[in-house]
Amino acid sequence: GERADPLAALRHAYSSVSGAVAMSAATVMLALIMLLVSIYGSDHRFAVPFVVGVGVTALASLTLVPSILSVLGRSAFFPYVPHPDREKPGRPRRRLTTEWVSRRPWTILIVTVLALSALGVASRNIRPTFNLLSQLPPSSSSVQGYHILSRAEGAGAVSPISVIVTGPGAGQNIRPALSRLSVAASAAGPTLGVYQGQPASLYRVLLRHNPLSMAAVRDLAVIHADVSAQLPHSRVYLAGQTAQNADSASAVRHDTHWVVPLVLGTIFILLVLYLRSLVAALYLIATVILSFFAALGAGWLFLHHVLGLSSWAGGGTLYGFRVSGGLGGRLQYLHALQHLGAPPEPSHG
Fold it and tell me: β-pairing, 128-129 with 312-313?
């Protein structure tokens, strides 16, 4: 809005931000493509469609949007249409944020880092869950049905644990031992059968905990360890919704431990090549990590203390990370410093 000729202003803006927009899109696309190393199905299938979506959006931002702005001119900013010709001479528009940062960079840096760090610490209190019922409103039929069944038959009745034993120990009745487990409310069985030419037996175990909770997921380890100790020469399988939640939690942990370092490492290398500055790349990676954990903490504080939720969707952390790496504004800032001949300094971030 500071140039009288709209097309000249558009050309200036495009030359200033196009590189940052393209680079920001590239970092997000790289982050998403790394999900191909995931073993959790929804994460793995997430990669290619969203890479294509981000790429198309970036292409439209660099081609379609400037074309529309060139046609519409200043009217595109209605109702706040800029009119630089009406600015009074000698009185440039004041940008309060810019003035605050330039006058007290260290103060703002310290306050901002402390505030974001405090929110980041709150993210440690996040309690993940794979309980789909907890994501539904209390008035839904499935939630009400669960409470009715729990009161009548016990918490574990909504989803019994299926314990399957194959091999030599399948003929041995371990129901009394299962019933005595501290995590079990009751056990039934065995039902005998054959699996892949070997004898097999099936037991149904009702847990004392809500079988959809993370506490129930930990109970599975107790059951598996106990049965395996009793029947060391047999194979033990656990099935049911609780077992599915346990495998989902394990897959999400695997994906988080692999995807996050791969994404950060790949983006860091790309930034070093693009900016030709190790310090600038480290600055950007640090801001991404800090803002990511701060966003998690702020989200958890709002969900827990304002909305009253007691848990966080199990895959929410990795989902938040893969969409939180937008670097456009920070890249544009570094671009400006480079064009001015000034080295990027974290204190002005």
Answer: parallel
Angle between helices 278-301 and 105-122 (to 10 degrees): 50
Residues 6+ apart with CB under 8 A from 72: none
Tell me the sheet residues that pair with 235: 166
Q: Which two tokens stand for residue 82?
A: 């800029």
Q: What is the sign of the dihedral through the CA atoms of 79, 81, 86 and 88?
A: positive
- Specify whether the CB–CB gap between 25 and 327 falls below 8 A: no
Question: What are the start-end ranges of the H helices in the chain?
Answer: 6-33, 41-72, 96-103, 105-122, 141-153, 175-179, 214-230, 241-275, 278-301, 316-322, 328-340
**Residue of 314, 330, 339, 319 lying closest to 267 (CA atoms):** 330
Residue 272: CB atoms within 10 A of its CB come to 16
Residues constituting the chain:
349
Phi, psi of 20 (to 5 degrees): -65, -40
Radius of gyration of the chain (CA): 28
What six digits make up the tokens of 194?
């054959």
What whole-number distance in Å separates Cα of residue 49 and Cα of residue 216? 34
The 10s digit of each residue's pLDDT in 190-225 is 999 988 888 999 999 999 888 888 888 889 999 999
Is the dihedral angle over the CA atoms 213, 218, 220, 226 positive or is it negative? negative
Q: Could you tell me if 327 and 23 are in contact, meaning their C-beta atoms sit under 8 angstroms apart?
A: yes
What pTM, to 2 d.p., does this model score? 0.71
Backbone phi, psi, residue 179, to 5°: -65, -30
Among residues 248, 256, 257, which one has the least CA distance to residue 216?
Answer: 248
Query: In a 3-state reduction of DSSP, which class is residue 192?
Result: strand
**Cβ atoms within 10 Å of 333's Cβ, excluding its own:** 17
List the beta bridge partners of residue 198.
Answer: 195
Residues 6+ apart with CB under 8 A from 307: none
Nearest alpha carbon to residue 183 among 145, 238, 130, 142: 238
- Model confidence pLDDT, tens digit, residues 141-170: 888 888 888 888 888 888 899 999 998 888
